[in-house]
Amino acid sequence: MKIALLTRNPKLYSHKRLMETAVGRGHDIVPIDYLRCYMNITSRKPELRYMGEKLEGFEAVIPRIAASHTFYGLAVLRQFEMMGVYPLNESVAIGRSRDKLRCLQLLARDGVGLPTTAFANDAQRTDEILNLVGGAPVVVKLLEGTQGIGVVLGETYKSAKSVIEAFHGAEVNILVQEFIQEAEGQDIRAFVVGRKIVAAMERTGPKGEFRSNLHRGGTAVLTELSVAEKSMALKAAQSMGLNVAGVDMLRSKRGPMVMEVNSSPGLEGIEDASGKDVAKAILEFLERNAKPGRTKTRGNG
């Protein structure tokens, strides 16, 4: 099978693992910098070019699009889809997961457990927003933030109000969520491939840090998910329409609560913590499912 790997940096651990595993299983995998692609948008003749060459003959595409380049990366992925190339994750599904507000709205619609969340454009409603989520402490999140960047803990009512009003004053879109005290700086990530959870880990933030992201100095260990956590993770991935997802959850008194659904989850932390060959599970999924024209959306939406 000829596979396109959409990445700006093929030397990253996750991308090296995917390429090594694909080659080891007899596939031809080509890393492609999606920002250097350009497209011919012609009726019934979609075409992609890269470094002066026409991209053709691919049977599957693995999108590893950075959050900062979502717009153009998804345009390239849609072009592959319109050419009948099977995507590991579809453009529409990635777009849903990258839009934090849309993601939460869809998860809420489908009954996925979430922390109480408020969103407003009117700075004069700050008191009402804080009351909606149960008062301080609260977590304030930038809609565009990733890897824990742009996430602030408002520990007191006064500090939370100041942070919210400051962001509104700068015309920055934010979400305000209840703070799950009992999580104690820990969360869990379930790695979903198809309709299965292939690995899971528990992450703990450094001392004094409420964010558990590995990029921010957190640590990870193998964990066993409960039946409720497994069900919630699968439901969250399905709600987004993602074939491969990293579903981040908190363990709360009210059961598992989904914080984020990541459409390009890293492999290093989860493989190290769990000892599972996640790259192999991803390639096996592609081998079972990659068929010409099998894309559900065909680049629509």
Give the helices and strands, then pairings.
Blueprint: E1 2-6, H1 13-24, E2 28-32, E3 37-40, E4 47-50, E5 53-54, E6 60-63, H2 70-82, E7 86-87, H3 91-98, H4 100-109, E8 117-118, H5 126-132, E9 138-142, E10 151-154, H6 157-169, E11 174-178, E12 186-193, E13 196-204, E14 219-222, H7 227-240, E15 244-252, E16 255-262, H8 268-274, H9 278-289
Helix pairs in contact: 1-9, 2-3
Characterize the structure shown.
The protein has 301 residues and is an alpha+beta fold. It folds into 3 domains: 2-89, Rossmann fold, CATH 3.40.50; 96-113 and 182-284, D-amino Acid Aminotransferase, Chain A, domain 1, CATH 3.30.470; 117-179, Dna Ligase, domain 1 (2-Layer Sandwich), CATH 3.30.1490. Helix content is 32%, strand content 27%. The protein has 9 helices and 16 strands. The strands form 4 sheets. Strands 14-13-12-15-16 form a 5-stranded antiparallel β-sheet, sandwiched between helices. The chain has a 4-stranded parallel β-sheet with strand order 2-1-6-7, with helices on both faces. Helix 1 (13-24) packs across helix 9 (278-289) and helix 2 (70-82) packs antiparallel against helix 3. The relative contact order is 0.15.
| Count of DSSP H/I helices | 9
Order of helices and strands: EHEEEEEHEHHEHEEHEEEEHEEHH
Query: What gap, in angstroms, lies between the N and C termini?
Result: 27 Å
Major sheet attributes: 5 strands, antiparallel
